[in-house]
């Protein structure tokens, strides 16, 4: 079993569809549920970051970055 790789946070601008963002917000609210005032205590920007990070890990972003053809 290999050791986990060291990870860092990188602040970047990414383009995602408005549909994807709307879905993330809706699902984050469903998971969090409303508080006693009916508001939702969820940071959707953090949730977007979590989802994109998980996607990159699952889809082997390291291998993708290693292929020079992906830079064209």
Uncertain residue segments: none
Compute the number of helices: 3
Shape: elongated
- What is the terminal separation in angstroms? 34 Å
* Mean of pLDDT: 94
Q: Write the element-wise H/E pattern from the N-terminal end onward.
A: HHH
Please report which band the strand proportion falls in: under 5%, 5-15%, 15-25%, 25-35%, 35-45% or over 45%: under 5%
The largest sheet is: none
Which percent bin holds the helix content?
A: 40-55%
Gyration radius, to the nearest Å?
16 Å
> Class by helix and strand content?
mainly alpha
Would you count the extended β strands for me?
0
List keywords for this structure.
72 residues; mainly alpha; elongated
Account of the 3D structure:
The longest helix is centred in the middle third of the chain and has 15 residues, at 18-32. The protein is mainly α and 72 residues long. The mean pLDDT is 94. It is 50% helix and 0% strand.
Write a concise synopsis of the structure shown.
The chain has helices at residues 18-32, 44-58, 61-66.
Topology:
Layout: H1 18-32, H2 44-58, H3 61-66
